[in-house]
Amino acid sequence: xxxxxxxxxxxxLIKPSLAQRNSINxxxxxxxxxxxxxxxxxxxxxxxxxxxKFGNGxxxxxxxxxxxxxxxxxxxxxxxxxPGHASIYTGTTPKYHGVIANNWYDKEIKKMVxxxxxxxxxxxxxxxxxxxxxxxxxxxxxxxxxxxxxxxMRGKTIGISIxxxxxVLPAGHTxxxxxxxxxxxxxAFISSTFYMSKLPQWVKDFNSSNKAASYLxxxxxxxxxxxxxxxxxxxxxFEEGFKGKETATFPYDLKALQKENMGYDxxxxxxxGNSIVADFAIEALKAEQLGVDxxxxxxxxxxxxxxxxxxxxxVNSKEIQDTYLRLDKDLxxxxxxxxxxxxxxxxxxxxxxxxxxxxVPAYLSEMKIPAGYLDYKKRKEKFNKFLxxxxxxxxxLENISNNQIFLNREKIKALKLDLDDVQEAxxxxxxxxxxIYKAYTAITMSSVxxxxxxxxxxxxGFNQKRSGDVILVDDPAYIAYSKTGSTHGSGLNYDTHVxxxxxxxxxxxxxxxxxxxxxxxAPTISVxxxxxxxxxxxxxxxxxxxx
Length: 547
Known about the structure:
With 547 residues, the chain is of the alpha/beta class.
């Protein structure tokens, strides 16, 4: 009798917590899980270029069963990974969320900082001092944060990526966990003390399963390379390739090449980096029991290897085509896992990118399209001479980075110079330089309300406290980069035009050519869930995609 009574009392104590977990029965029957997918450096035209080679269960499933926004753009500059991920999930731009680049010059501490770095935390799962990460530099909430607040912290949020910033920023400030891949000699998913004191057992088990080592194999094309007619020739002058291999041509023996290419880091620049992210995300679904009850959970997944491959081989390479065909397969098995774990029609997925990328300028130039390369060193030498001749010193210059000029305001004040006049003089000088397309002062960015063109994008990327004194824009298709591989960062369409696909519970089937913006995603998800918009959100809900 005593034992029976004890069991009843224990059950009574447990039962409220179980009931509490299921107490938010939303009358709108919210999806059990929201999955946000970001494909790093994915141009919109990859959907159309490779469409006939995709299977039916990945990209095509999203396009055929869901809603395709075909005129989707970033509405700010710069188009980098950190700002991109932050903007997608906060519904605002660097002007408000504060992530103005991947790395930027901090005017207060007078040195460069990294968007996700946080010296107040430690890595978990690695002893590396370089893996101390948190979202503390992002100044606004994500829709995942708002979902956590709305559900009284009962809805889970998990962020996953190869890149730390691709996991940390989307998951937000209140996430249960963010995991990213530590390459080098480790080949493991790790986290930081911002989220936990030790890795969950399922993560330890995944890391000890030698999954990463299994991908150190030969990378050859998924299909016959002669069928890859949507990309350029395999052997050309526009690709970098891997150290230890003379030509950037298939096949690649990753195990043989790993030693000269930073160990497990070589996986990041192959489709297998995406595959291991999919593996880990599927394991997280099961281990964290995401989407198993009526409290909406959020899973953010960033496939970053597409970016590494693009930087290395360029957007027109056989390697980029093979990477997307393999990602299509990874998406298919991820969606199948969602169907099984959460239930078909019980979750929602959106897929977008953090930026696009330019065709290799050397290739464009060969095709007689205006394009080329910039020599920032020579430009700076000329600028320093101007400063010395005009102001008698170069000490008023603190930093040039991310196409921004940062001035030493204390020195300007000591020299009894007027800051506005100095900024304006620099603009008048810089605009005369070869391949400078536009130049604006911080005063202009803060005081003039632009409504169209590149100026509006610059303004939405300008953060009054963090950005520089002068903002520069290079000529279209001119980049400061090696003559092999692709990069990004501009406000031109090759960098701003990216996919936006929705499918799942509450989503209509259809397409639109209406222009949509990166900042519209978070408020759309917020409306769907019936939660508060992220606190800095400036976007508009895309009501036409909702049932």
